[in-house]
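Many introductory courses stop at the sequence. We go one step further.
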Amino acid sequence: MIDLYLFRHAECEMNKATDLIGGRSNSSELTSLGKSQAKLLGLRLAKEDLTFDHVYASPAKRTLGTAQIACEEVGFSHEKIIIDERIQELDQGDWEGKPRVECYTPETMKILEDMGWDFKSPNGESRKEVEDRMVKFVDENVLSKYDSKKKITVAVFSHGVAIKCLLRHVLDFDQAISYKVLLSNTSISQLRFTDKGWFVERINDGAHIADSDALKAYQNWVYGTIE
């Protein structure tokens, strides 16, 4: 049996610029709140007595930083964290750092709607390409470790779109549904693999940061509400 934990990174500086397209933004650092979120995640994992056999992180500073802070709380050495480029965020190419309103015009949104999972920004990548690399990563680094006689626990510190693309494949749901799935900073999504296939334990579990200002701001941005 394999327990696969998928963690979205903690809040970074680029997350605060909600009017801009973040894309990979791999140099974006964690905010002070983000560091607190990562620690809260680690404390929660420790409280749940979780130990990891393997930990992977994308090369983005915000993701590796989240992994390092959280892993300190569960006693997993920084030196054992494996960086893998296949679990990076969606590459937004020429759009990275640009205002959303300038890129997601009504005309562009119509093209996106028509192309769906195959749409990509100029010099960027499509969600289909993200899904393919995430699935390849899981096949080679997670499922290859499967042993029906013992439990293996794997942690993957990744990104919102990347995780949702993997979930779309595992759960085999329609592409459009992925846009309705929310993944807050340091949220926990847990999948279990047995000889009967994949099972879902939880998605977007952020109880450890339920009262954080960052989560409220994110939800306000998504839902268009002001509190």
